[in-house]
Amino acid sequence: MEAAAGGGCGSGPPLLLSEGEQQCYSELFARCAGAAGGGPGSGPPEAARAVPGAVTAAAGPVADLFRASQLPAETLHQITELCGAKRVGYFGPTQFYIALKLIAAAQSGLPVRIESLKCELPLPRFMMSKTDADIRFGNPAELHGAKVQIPYLITEKNTFKRMDDEDKQETQSPTMSPLASPPSSPPHYQRVPLSHGYSKLRSSTEQMHPAPYEARQPLVQPEGPSSGAPGAKPPRHQASLIRSFSVEREPHDNNSNYPDEPWRITEEQREYYVNQFRSLQPDPSSFISGSVAKNFFTKSKLSIPELSYIWELSDADCDGALTLPEFCAAFHLIVARKNGYPLPEGLPPTLQPEYLQAAFPKPKRECTLFDSYSESMPANQQPRDLNRMEKLSIKDMADFPVPAQDVTSDDKQALKSTADEALPKDMSEDPATSKDSNSLKARPRSRSYSSTSIEEAMKRGEDPPTPPPRPQKTHSRASSLDLNKVFQPSVPATKSGLLPPPPALPPRPCPSQSEQASEAEIHPQLNRAPSQAADSSPTKKDIPYSQPPSKPIRRKLRPENPAPESQEPSSTVGGAASAVTGKPHTAVQKQSSKQKKAIQTAIRKNKEANAVLARLNSELQQQLKEVHQERIALENQLEQLRPVTVL
Amino acid sequence: MAVCVAVIAKENYPLYIRSIPTENELKFHYMVHTSLDVVDEKISAMGKALVDQRELYLGLLYPTEDYKVYGYVTNSKVKFVMVVDSSNTALRDNEIRSMFRKLHNSYTDVMCNPFYNPGDHIQSSRAFDSMVTSMMIQVC
To answer: Cβ distance A354 to A381 under 8 Å?
Structure first.
């Protein structure tokens, strides 16, 4: 029902709105339009939804809504100008939707530009989730934890319509109270991965009036997370509800409500960073020296001043070395910068080393993440919320390893499943979905071959934590392919020793791709593997071309990590390989493809080493020539002088 | 307090120089330049035999009618020069020393950054800039 109206309204704007976005925006528009025209009070939602198509939102409620987004005034002015409201003189659906999207962009820290809207499809989702994410700060699990999600949604809509009247209709709130009361239990959830539609509703209300929640609190709390609360605008009810939950949550999770969404590190990101750290420095409790870190971060292709600034931010103790939390913070800043976020003035609180150490005691806590779905377990929830939020918000961060993508889809599944069921069922669903996610997370290798995501495939080939073996670890220069195949599953570690530590490798994903393809053909004996590898490598070939530049950089980062890293991934691969043996032919396939990838990476590395050595050779030749010339000059001088002295 | 702060490299070229009244900067640059001679004089006078025991803080290098110039040398022959307004009554020696110490600490932090090549201009370190600003703005 929502979708219909949403679809109708969504056809106006030039943006590509996803279904959730359409729902949310249409609701907001209905509210603003209704408020202006004294629209249908408790009328059927359909009627209300039909209105937006023919009505424009009045400036008053729209201005309130924008102000409630807590953006600075100049940003709002910018947004208003950009969306064209000033041009047409009113907030039609198009302008309204554009404005909402810009608000989401601004809230997520992206510059307010038309380009933010016109970005490719992934971005709208990003915006949406960002909005949701912003909302989720205040959205306790009320949406999620509600026993009956759908009836709750309906009451929500009724609430929205009520808002149009701007009255303090108590009638509706009691209706909502019983429904909403269950959510009171999970108020501690920070960022419950609510269904997008619900979260969007929430987000719309969030955006409306986050301010007056304190006033609402006494009202809200007794009522529980119901909309309730007379007085003020109906949107405030929602906002207050949400805010009250956020406030309630605060004691539970003092870290969750930081408004710096892009600066949170998700679980997958954390794992990725930790693995990278281990590749540079096997001991996670020790430091990475400055020069090592410099080489590593230079590969990210950011400018030196930016890298210098990132270092300044992340090296909290200014000792010239990075501990694990410092490293994660620096890495995260680099990733964020590469994805377009401006660097912050100071280290965000979620990136402080203390926070990182507290929030991520152990890298792998997927199970616990999902266990606490309806309980207050702040520590667990933090990473899970971070997980959810970040996954949704960084969906299009190409740098992130594949798990991000998969987990995002897991999130969606979890969201949908929870949305559709009552709370008890949600509980059961969550463990199920969480287990799915866990299993997925725990077995990225199984996903690697089945995943269709380009990023996943690319990352798979390069990712240490994933089964597709880290290429460089198992490859000696001239060893035959047979040897590699033989050794790889059994003794990857020793193989890594044979690998010459590659010098700085220039970013060349393309040649590596062709390498992989050729390698794939060379091994006819790996019947299935070659085909698989060939399939994956052409895919990979396409990936760098079609993906944003950060992806090739990420690939480069991976293979360029020197030998120590190769040992780590080799052991990882060894473990992965052993784990996979449980599944016979999948194991064989994987091993062979792993071997192929190993071979391909080794070839690539050797080529790069060759190139560097060739350069070095030419330079030395140059120097040799110069020295020769000097020698000749000196000998000439000597000749000239000798007759003089003789005389 | 300071109206001009300069960090001079071992080879006597400036790594960082900043003055507060942004007009008439050239005058301060010239003052810093001339003070280098005095710094060298003090270093050579002290440090012939006992370089290690040489104190880092050089004290007042020379006074002019409007300004006083203080100097500080690190063990790696990087010099810090600070020009202070004479009208500032009684800036005690201790305060100058503490300012130099802060400068030295910030400089060390900049050096710790692996992305900083020794010998480069110190232009990308916001921490250093903010520290210098705090020293200069105290007066103004």
So the answer is: no
